[in-house]
């Protein structure tokens, strides 16, 4: 694909809710769709961050590992990076103010876009989860046993996506952000932060390519009507 106007998504967030964590797409195949993105690994194995074509996994102990061949994903978003500058950050922004600033500047609430911010942070707080054994628990149970990491005075990159609320379930309605420290000392799914300085870039998408794990029988046989997807996503995210 490699179209800068297109976002590629493998799987749905909803499939994670009942514990359909099996990795059905290889990292090699995922990277054929883009050089930037986020996701998770087989068995909900940590938090995935892809920058400049290099994939990093933040495991449940907070270690940042460069991902090699053999890594597979149940859910991920990637795209071909072609970010455009949005604004410089010259005053402190907490997570809520950051999101509001991006939305106020773009007015893109009804489309998919990626946001990338690099700079200095007063602190960054992230989370990750250890790889789960079969039979897999549900997403909320895993979130209740997550590991939380916090680092002060850190430089790094926030990378992630905004999805329209009408797509909540297929993706995370609103912002879904990951963080990676420049020195790889920490990272993961963003819980909270305060950005002091740096820059924010964005990339808008007019197309969404979504691939489903049709060869996975657990997915094909699952009845999602029995899952409270919206509630589970709210609790887990």
Series of H and E elements:
EEHEEEEEEEEHEHEEEEHH
* Strand neighbour order, sheet with most strands: 6-5-4-3-8-1-15
Shape type: globular
The averaged pLDDT comes out at: 95
Point out poorly predicted stretches.
Answer: none
Distance between the termini: 29 Å
Structural class: mainly beta
Strand content: 35-45%
How many strands?
A: 15
Radius of gyration: 17 Å
Specify the number of helices: 5
Major pleated sheet: 7 strands, mixed
Helix content: 10-25%
Describe what this molecule looks like in 3D.
- With 237 residues, the protein is mainly beta.
- Helix content is 15%, strand content 44%.
- The chain has five helices and 15 strands.
- The protein has helices at residues 27-31, 95-106, 139-143, 217-221, 229-236; strands at residues 6-10, 25-26, 36-40, 47-51, 54-58, 64-66, 72-73, 75-79, 84-89, 93-94, 113-128, 147-163, 174-181, 187-204, 207-211.
- Strands 6-5-4-3-8-1-15 form a seven-stranded mixed sheet.
- Strand 3 and strand 4 (47-51) form a beta hairpin.
- The longest helix is centred in the middle third of the chain and has 12 residues, at 95-106.
- The model has no long low-confidence stretch (mean pLDDT 95).
Attribute tags:
single chain; 237 residues; 44% strand; globular; mainly beta; six-stranded antiparallel β-sheet; 5 helices; acetoin biosynthesis; seven-stranded mixed β-sheet
